[in-house]
User: Fold this.
Amino acid sequence: MAYHDLREFIRALEENRELKRIPFEVDPILEISEFADRAVKQGGPALLFEKPKGSNVSVLINAFASMRKMEIALEVGSVEEIAARIVEFLEMRMPEGLIGKLKMLPKLAEMGAFFPKVVSKGACQEIVRTNGFSLLEMPVLKCWPEDGGRFITLPLVFSRNPDTGKRNCGMYRMQVFDERTAGMHWQTHKQGAEHYRRNRQAGKTRMDVAVAIGADPATMYSAILPLPPDLDEMMIAGFLRQSPVEMVKCQTCDQEVPANAEFVLEGYVEPGELRTEGPFGDHTGFYSLADEYPVFHVTCMTQRRDPIYATTIVGPPPMEDYYMGKAIERIFLPLMRLQLPEVRDIAMPAEGVFHNLILVSMRKSYPGHARKVMHSIWGTGQAMFSKVIVVVDEDVDVHNFREVAWKALNNIDPQRDIEFAMGPVDSLDHASRLPNYGSKMGIDATRKWLGEGFSRPWPGVIEMSADVKKRVDELWKRVGW
Ligand SMILES: Cc1cc2nc3c(=O)[nH]c(=O)nc-3n(C[C@H](O)[C@H](O)[C@H](O)COP(=O)(O)O)c2cc1C
Ligand SMILES: [Mn+2]
Assistant:
């Protein structure tokens, strides 16, 4: 049964001993961060701070901060189950004949059941204020010592494509500037930024934006998924939770938000208005430097009567976002394999902070095949950011980083097997020659073929023969270790 809201998820975490309540006062300025960092590094529980200093709203952090918590969030035994459900849908073809078509009906109905539903009332509007509210009623964290201020870190930012009318929901952090204004940190490649550009080009003076904070976990999680433009995150959230997301209309702007949200900020962004945002201790483990970003003006704050504030911190890996990203890696593999069936597996080690390193194993079928895979990844959605791609043969376990390093380093002739390409890079890359533009490196660590100009013999990996192993298994017992 899909979680109705954030508090049902909190209850499930608690029942699974994955949540710890902190009943004493802790400061959202830096102290909650230090608690959260220590907890995640120890594989500890989610934390619910019941007495954050300066606010009477509880703070939830680290709710997604392990694979077990991700499984509880998405109500699965393993996130691979979601991948399997996706494959099942992708393989669904309209069968021949009437009987076959009739058999399909339940599946199609199931698909229809994922679409978000507009309802007339929602708990997120139990209290509605267009005046006399302040963003700082929420226990917004200052995460790291050199941060430029306090940041809302788990917001679901809703905007619309002015050309198609399609909705987008992305997670873009928001620096609180004062009671009614915040930064809107949608990076240039993200859908919110694209909507902003289109509004600006169309000469619009206002772009309606709504922000939801805290909702059922599948809905929250959908905001970070690297979906194609114009694919509604709320539909995917419905697929993940296997029940439609209920949406309510905003009171003061042309957006809908999840009815079960804890807080909703309604408002607008004025195309052309920019303000300095940051610095911010980011998920690269470095500070992202201050930069100019649009400003979000809040016209109305709505909330539950007793809201809970959901947040996270990012920083030196692994942090909560590593586990959220790991689930994406597993869930999106079958989708990548639609385009690239030769890919066996992928892995993004925590230290690579997603965009810096992707390890790919593949079944090589023709000369240059590994390079084709690299370029295809650079051409796929947010995988375009991959700064270093290492391609290995299918016998290499990409989740075993020692094996990858050992085999890949043995297999390369650097000058021959390393390729550089130019293109867009992640906005958080602090080393690229220009913001958002720079080079990437592909390493073809597959075994080289004659057809690739390699005429020397290629050695096999050392392995003891099976019969000797078996014999020594017996003899070994006599050693008495
Ligand atoms: C905790 C967290 C914070 C994030 N903060 C930002 C951010 O400030 N700006 C940004 O552009 N992306 C941020 N992201 C990544 C986006 O949410 C992600 O790229 C998402 O796919 C964007 O959705 P879109 O394609 O609909 O724009 C964050 C992700 C997480 C998990
Ligand atoms: Mn999107």
